Amino acid sequence: MSPRPYLLLDIDGVLVPFPGGQGEIPASHTRHVVVPTGRSADDPVTVWLDPAHGPLLMQVIRTGLVRPVWCTSWRQDATALIGPLLGLPPLPHIDLPRPQITTSHPDGHLWKRDHVDAWLGDAPAIWIDDDFTGRDHEWAAERTARGRVTVLVQPDPHVGLLAEHVTEVLARSAPSAVNRGGASGVQRAAEVA
Q: pTM value?
């Protein structure tokens, strides 16, 4: 039996959408002001969250088919600040470094990827992030070909997580989908969800 895949969750561009060209945020999102680690109450951060995301993610978490983990530059603040606003239980986080970079893709792929690869080891993963490149998708295909099923789910960063992404996660986390590299069992899992 294969181990349950990790569900790696990003925040910016997934749960907190980036403003559109005119600064617009989806109407479904609510404004919150938070004070991340290292900032003072005089210098808070405004985030926009969709209250429907909490129940959507809890639907996945309650199945027990995945091991949810924050994979975000918010690090421990994901559990301390963002999770409670969505009604999520405390989740572990990958302790990502704080690189001095000017682009999300300093080596042609998402800056988090090498750290995530080392952290995962041989574990399967479903990773939701808005910022993958073609090289990240190649990496996922290579991991999957080596028996380490890796599924990348990439929301539009101006829209964020949608119900269809959660359906994909549920389909890909079904044991038959994980055991067969995600290519089989997807339809059956989606029907159950």
A: 0.86
Give Cα 65 distance to the centre of its chain. Answer: 15
Contact 94, 120 (CB under 8 A): no
Q: Which residues contact 43 (CB under 8 A, 6 or more apart)?
A: 35
Please give the backbone phi and psi of residue 91, each rounded to the nearest 5 degrees, phi first: -120, 150
Token pair of 122, please? 């041989």
Evaluate if residue 177 carries a pLDDT over 60.
Answer: no
Query: Which of the four pLDDT bands, split at 50, 70 and 90, describes residue 1?
Result: low
User: Coil, strand or helix: which one is 168?
Assistant: helix
- Lookup result for tokens 């070909």: 145
φ, ψ dihedrals at 41, nearest 5°: -60, -20
pLDDT band at 175 (very low <50, low <70, confident <90, very high): low
| Nearest residue to 62 via CA among 187, 154, 166 | 166
The CA distance from 20 to 6, in Å, is 31
In angstroms, what CA-CA distances link 138 with 135, 142, 144, 160, 165?
Answer: 5, 6, 10, 23, 20
pLDDT at 172: 85
